[in-house]
């Protein structure tokens, strides 16, 4: 049976991974500066992670959300301790889209309203309300387009004010650092004013931390670079280091009610074991510190490359913007130089999302390789 052909694939077949490297079916080693779309947070096959999942699957892999599962409480407490987000409550799901879908649904339940404000170049997932709030008409089917969404420019405070004052907006959803859009960020004033406008207009402020959260930006959540208090925080990607898990942190002003939200697989025993192994490793290996240190080092090294016109992002969520489209460069990096990097909607931007335990030596290795790759690409262009 053929696979439904929706993914343009690179001709590479990774079969194993260790730390910052993956290995293909011929045993070739690749430096992984992309972590499979920002998912690999503590490195491939981290021993803590392998052990935790192995132990859990040997004990109990799954039971439904109709029984006591103390691992969920343990995960909630660990997220609270590491993020410093006191008093929020946790609801667990399986993916980023599902996290945002539930965030928007909760915002609508809480406010009784149904329009969403989102932003240009934002990406929030492919399900009903999440995809409608995503600025990409190519992936919005007619059934999704019935959602009421207004998409504004980042930094358009006046636009947000006008929309919220109409009284029908349940949520403003924003990535504090845009991922697939190309690492753009709004200003601190914008985020802080939007936070205040949400509070003044009974609108829920939803921080989409699915890509920029979980220590990647150098703080546990990217919104923590600002003075804001989101009502709902959505998480996924780095949360399970590859095990499918997502979640939302919900401000206690939003009251829970039996049956309000639900999922079969969300918060299952294996997912919680994976999630706990990730957080325990972020803590025990001081990965937040590592993100800041190695991220700063990466930026310094990038400044030496004259072809890089702008460096975007924070921590280990970085974008290198060139004055040419980087498709050819990415192919050269992957096929000839054996390095995984990412692209973005901004075709001139190379996205760098390595595991959070990357070391400076890997960064040095990358820049040596990048120089070679740039020479190769320039030769083919000239
Ligand atoms: C910011 C952001 N939100 C939501 C999603 C959707 O997550 P998922 O693919 O797990 O549904 C993504 C995925 O790339 C993302 O980057």
From TrEMBL:
Gene3D superfamilies tied to this protein: Aspartate Aminotransferase, domain 1, Type I PLP-dependent aspartate aminotransferase-like (Major domain)
Superkingdom of this protein's organism: Bacteria
CDD domains per record: OAT_like
Cofactor dependence: pyridoxal 5'-phosphate
Molecular-function annotations in GO: identical protein binding; pyridoxal phosphate binding; transaminase activity
InterPro entries tied to this protein: Aminotrans_3 (IPR005814), Aminotrans_3_PPA_site (IPR049704), Class-III_PLP-dep_AT (IPR050103), PyrdxlP-dep_Trfase (IPR015424), PyrdxlP-dep_Trfase_major (IPR015421), PyrdxlP-dep_Trfase_small (IPR015422)
Keyword Ribosomal protein carried by entry: no
One Pfam family from the record: Aminotran_3
Oxidoreductase recorded as keyword: no
Key words, A-Z: Aminotransferase, Pyridoxal phosphate, Transferase
Family: Belongs to the class-III pyridoxal-phosphate-dependent aminotransferase family.
Protein name: Aspartate aminotransferase family protein
Species this chain originates from: Seonamhaeicola maritimus
